[in-house]
Description:
Two copies of one chain form a homodimer. Chain A has 704 residues and is α/β, with parallel strands linked by helices. Chain A is built from 21 helices and 16 strands. The first copy, chain A, has helices spanning 2-11, 44-61, 87-90, 122-137, 189-200, 220-233, 248-251, 263-279, 305-316, 338-346, 407-415, 427-431, 459-473, 479-490, 495-516, 547-551, 575-581, 592-595, 610-633, 641-673, 688-693, and strands spanning 36-38, 66-67, 76-79, 102-109, 112-119, 146-149, 155-159, 205-207, 239-244, 285-288, 322-326, 357-362, 386-391, 442-446, 557-558, 598-599. Chain A has an eight-stranded parallel barrel. In chain A, strands 2-1-3-5-4-6 form a six-stranded mixed beta sheet. In chain A, 55% of the residues are buried. At the A-B interface, helix 1, helix 2 and helix 20 of A face helix 1, helix 2 and helix 20 of B.
Amino acid sequence: MLAFLNITQGAWAEDGYDLWLRYRPVPNAQAIQPHSITAPGHSPTVKAAVAELTRGLTGLTGQAPATDAMLRDGALWLATPTDSPDIARLAPGLTKLGAEGYAIRSLSRDGKAVTLIAANSDRGLLYGSFHYLRLAASGAPLARLDVRESPRIDLRLLNHWDNLDGQVERGYAGSSIWDWWTLPDDKGARYTDYARANASIGINGTVLNNVNAKAESLTPFYIAKAAALADVFRPYGIKVYLSVKWTAPMELGGLKTADPLDPAVVAWWRAKADEIYATIPDFGGFLVKANSEGQPGPQDYKRTHADGANMLAAAVKPHGGIVMWRAFVYAHDNPDDRAKQAYSDFKPLDGQFADNVIVQVKNGAIDFQPREPFHPLFGAMPKTPLMMEFQITKEYLGQRTHLTYLGPLFEEVLRADTMARGKGSTVAKVIDGSLDNHRLTGIAGVANIGTDRTWSGSVFNQADWYAFGRMAWNPDLSAQAVAREWAAQTFSPAPSVIDPIVTMMMGSREAAVNYMTPLGLAHIMATGHHYGPGPWVSDLARPEWNPVYYHRADASGIGFDRTKTGSNAIAQYAPALARRLADPRTTPERDLLWFHHVGWDQKLAFGETLWNALVHHYDAGVADVVAMQATWNGLAQQIDADRFAQTQTFLAIQHREAIWWRDACIAYFQSIAKRPLPPGSAAPAHPLDWYKALQFPFAPGNPK
Amino acid sequence: MLAFLNITQGAWAEDGYDLWLRYRPVPNAQAIQPHSITAPGHSPTVKAAVAELTRGLTGLTGQAPATDAMLRDGALWLATPTDSPDIARLAPGLTKLGAEGYAIRSLSRDGKAVTLIAANSDRGLLYGSFHYLRLAASGAPLARLDVRESPRIDLRLLNHWDNLDGQVERGYAGSSIWDWWTLPDDKGARYTDYARANASIGINGTVLNNVNAKAESLTPFYIAKAAALADVFRPYGIKVYLSVKWTAPMELGGLKTADPLDPAVVAWWRAKADEIYATIPDFGGFLVKANSEGQPGPQDYKRTHADGANMLAAAVKPHGGIVMWRAFVYAHDNPDDRAKQAYSDFKPLDGQFADNVIVQVKNGAIDFQPREPFHPLFGAMPKTPLMMEFQITKEYLGQRTHLTYLGPLFEEVLRADTMARGKGSTVAKVIDGSLDNHRLTGIAGVANIGTDRTWSGSVFNQADWYAFGRMAWNPDLSAQAVAREWAAQTFSPAPSVIDPIVTMMMGSREAAVNYMTPLGLAHIMATGHHYGPGPWVSDLARPEWNPVYYHRADASGIGFDRTKTGSNAIAQYAPALARRLADPRTTPERDLLWFHHVGWDQKLAFGETLWNALVHHYDAGVADVVAMQATWNGLAQQIDADRFAQTQTFLAIQHREAIWWRDACIAYFQSIAKRPLPPGSAAPAHPLDWYKALQFPFAPGNPK
């Protein structure tokens, strides 16, 4: 028997592929009641739910549950009002939970103790099943459940920046999981596992291709491939969307123009939409990056973003499709503060978009920095539904190797108060539609998924995918609660494991802010690949591509003056907030240099000079990584060998690179500030030129 | 218990990752004797051997063998003459087996029945252990073993055409398994599994980077990463090599020239070699693609290939390194038959190369076609060691999806008779050094390995990696015997499984020849990516890039006249062979159109006209794929679900694409031959223009 166990252990090696759906035996397995599952429905979605429950309960308890048409004592019962007329009575309030919501209730039925998962649709049953498994895997008590859940946001989407050649822009987890070449024939198991993982956290849509789109993704050749993926995803409640290139009618259709008001262009898009929907009847719609970073768009024809979006929206409207139009725009010929340009372009268009258009806005006004104040468009376009765009892949937050849990970033943005309709007008309320009463609501995350065995490049990066999904479902969830859920399922429900891991995770993003861009600094990464520090870069063609544009360090101080004396970007925020931001003393210290140019010797809240505080923040970032290493090392006995070793290795990389970031930035800023380091702070390991000379020509995530 | 088995089965899913080292229980497990392993040695290599035996025997028998310092009855005993002085007596002839050879003998020792694996070095013990496991996994009898093995060829290398950005040129199995970015820190388990797989088939070296090399791979940054891989591979007897870019002294060293006779260039390379060997003491040496397809080289400075190779050879000589200099050259300004140019360039250099240079020659004179006559350089450079370059990745043989087992191709080339020293002067004898008495011998295979879970893009593509290794060890092994070995370990030793699978495999390459390039045709693939047919292509800049250059179809007939009336390439072969090739009637029909321009109505051996025979070959290729599909479908009950389904899907793709190849080529050739199809042959499904219009802009394996 020893040998057999041996083999089994080998087979159980934790390579990370199973994500948070590991379903390993839990200590309190006997507390997990159900030995049978009763599900009257027969749709592929119900079958997927039953299959997942069977897989999960078998793994968690070591006992395969039976599936039984008759309700047995201790059964798990999946039913909609269509399946059983008294569901409405057994799950009061169900109707209000909508098409995706569900209730889970422990109740007695014909004298039998059963757990009812009730929903208005089979999708709801699937979500409820995953909820039940999450509770079971986390060791939560299951005997007296009374859960009611429905998503606050309707469109919960991943954006894959995946190119048709298999490379992933800003991807740090291998190449694209879409094997375009063997699709539509080969629908390998990984696609189903992708759908399972997404459904388990409530993600209900996926944009398959990069926003820097190739026209070819709209050819019949590629539409057939997208349709094959849609077939795999459909039972899991996941719709497929495509990014489109504005000039597709010219590139594919041979038209002379892509003017959105040209009848031939209108007709081309309408026919293309009809063609897609003939193949993918539940196709979600289009995502568009137009007139942005060199992409063509309606402005090339002196039309507005609204003209462009509405033309596409009309094409998909008959089929129930939508258009997601990105607000990430800044122009090479616009000398104004880059942080202001999206607002300047889009704010005047408020009210001009068709009712199946949603404008997709990045969380901040620049580009997915370790920290940015929330984007001023949130709260500023009351007549237009706005969709959040988060970046789950960590272009600016340590890429593959750094442990920087994004939950706190998501939380910080979602809870930020726009003050648009007075106190409490949070960003979450803008995007869930409640602030301005919008029907169309959405949130997107740029995926961190690739062919790496761990999906996300590391086990801890999986937490960012998880957190995005959970917080898209309920933007009020705390990053900490989500981290606990994730850690319990990913490692173990034991508090001796969860507690230190969650502590690491919760401090990790602030650590990265500190060793990269403390006190409101931003965009001082190296050019192109954004790997490592490059605050000295000043020679790029467009001013707003250069780090010096953002930090503006000079002999007098550092920071971007966005008050009236500077770019006046603060005027784009609601007046009550703008007033607060106008004064460095009432600006949150974490955003100080984002909004103000501050003298090196200016005293900050704790009485330190800005220069000393800056250095101390860099020191703190490094120290926090050292602390994470110690915490992780303390878990050696409680984590499987493979995941322990990789995380330990990656933390060592993070430590080395945190020091690199700190040293390079301090060396550079000191060359400008010309002030001594505060006592106790070590001098950089190398002279500034050493850091400047480093080159990383083949850094990942930066396809040519 | 049911549930537990259930989980176990799930964990045992056959995703292909384990290659031929699956070690699943075999029916005759009780016939596998050893319950203990005795290995006096303590080197990392011995430890690797014992670990592999433990893993393998545990898996095969369900019993973990003990490791014991004392020999027990039934033990497996791994020992070198250093370990035990009487090994020489127990394994007579061992000395002659060299540093990598081994003997395996069933014998009695102090009254105990033991199986001795004896070798002169720990590497030999490792190879012997893998041999033993191969026998055990194949269900071979193990009670009376008397095996003596040593490799016929010294350098048995993989060439990875892996770029530093992670893309693989001509790779169809995902991206590069070298994660340059997390090296040298992260030495993930996959690197060890790569080493295990290679050691199991005797591969003892690997060139990490593409022959189209970037200079950067010689920077300290990348040398440290290569060193980390070398550390992982060392216990498995695998040395690391690097491809180098000729102009590295200019790109990295700031020199004004790369002239091999310039003292500064000589000094740069010598210092670079010293630097590499300081980090990787057993570094293997350099592989060079120079003055080939746009790569720089010594001819840019009016020096010869020998001048270039010898300069590099001198740099690595003090460290025991070698230089592999590729003969794959053809020049844009040379109007002569491309098939002749490598010979023309290299033959005059015979005898001029340093003794640690080996010239690496592709198996044929063009480029890894489904079939080519052997390269005329084999046998033509008696004073120079020549190394074979095979392409394991199937650039021209169906890429990822087609089942085209390369064993028969390797066998055909290795057994081809150069007649250089009379009958029996086979290519195998050229490259194993026996024909011209060379000490330095080698064979390289362009790897088909990537991050795909199956490593090679499909389960059957793994057989090509396997066959390359086995036939590199012993070029006299038959493709069929190797296929049986592989199938037994990969699927099951049951004849009901092996027999049909080996039948499929053995016919599969000829099927591809037939549906792509029958009767000696070559290089009529589409441009760039080489995916699918393109016989009509005639508009590329260099004449020898165009398919029409190769097939030369016109109103009178088809084929490349390489006799005296044409390019006279046949004169590059030994006179006895050249005489035979001068006459179409004594030229093997399979190579007919390679050497001759033949009239459409010319009668071939079986009395058919060439045109009819051509069409019938295309028909036969398609029919063979249909037969393979039927054979595979018959195995449904005997193959696990995942590997069965993927192979079935890929065979369906192969079937569709075989028809595409056939139809497109027939449509095109018929437009020139202007003859009716023979009775019973179906007309192409589409008109010629339909095939010409097909575009595949993002086909894999063709990085920009």
